[in-house]
């Protein structure tokens, strides 16, 4: 497999998150820890997100309050809302890569998504306290 991109997923939150990626799987990240995934060219509809308040057993089965992916540590499907999303597609129209952030599935943690490619040096951030500003009727546990 030829890798088109490497993603470094870093937890800058003051608490533990369980990072998730499709493709990629999942991993527990304590504050300041990084997880690297390599993704093939042609990858589409890909997502990276953080899960919170998770409990997993030794076999990698469990549950997360936000972003849960069918009770698995190693995600094979998208997470359940609420979860802040980083989305990407590689080697698409005119062989370009596309990145974005989305709150279509709600918001659970602040996020930054950036590229360090010479052709693209964009930084996308969603660091506002969305949960703190969210009207009560729209809030759910963790988001």
TrEMBL record:
<feature type="disulfide bond">
    <location>
        <begin position="69"/>
        <end position="75"/>
    </location>
</feature>
<dbReference type="InterPro" id="IPR001938">
    <property type="entry name" value="Thaumatin"/>
</dbReference>
<dbReference type="Pfam" id="PF00314">
    <property type="entry name" value="Thaumatin"/>
</dbReference>
<dbReference type="InterPro" id="IPR037176">
    <property type="entry name" value="Osmotin/thaumatin-like_sf"/>
</dbReference>
<feature type="disulfide bond">
    <location>
        <begin position="54"/>
        <end position="64"/>
    </location>
</feature>
<protein>
    <recommendedName>
        <fullName>Thaumatin-like protein</fullName>
    </recommendedName>
</protein>
<keyword id="KW-1015">Disulfide bond</keyword>
<dbReference type="InterPro" id="IPR017949">
    <property type="entry name" value="Thaumatin_CS"/>
</dbReference>
């Amino acid at each position: 497999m030829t890798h088109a991109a490497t993603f470094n997923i870093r937890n800058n939150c003051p608490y533990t998150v369980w990072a998730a990626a499709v493709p990629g799987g999942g991993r527990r990240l304590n504050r300041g820890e990084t997880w690297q995934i390599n993704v093939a060219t042609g990858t589409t509809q890909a997502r990276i997100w953080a899960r919170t308040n998770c409990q997993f057993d030794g076999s990698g089965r469990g549950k997360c309050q936000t972003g849960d992916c069918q009770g698995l540590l190693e995600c094979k499907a998208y997470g359940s809302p609420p979860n802040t999303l980083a989305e990407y597609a590689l080697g698409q129209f005119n062989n370009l890569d596309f990145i974005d952030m989305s709150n279509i599935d709600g918001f659970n943690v602040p996020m930054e998504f950036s590229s360090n490619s010479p052709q693209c040096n964009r930084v996308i951030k969603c660091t506002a306290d969305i949960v703190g500003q969210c009207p009560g009727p729209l809030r759910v546990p963790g988001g």
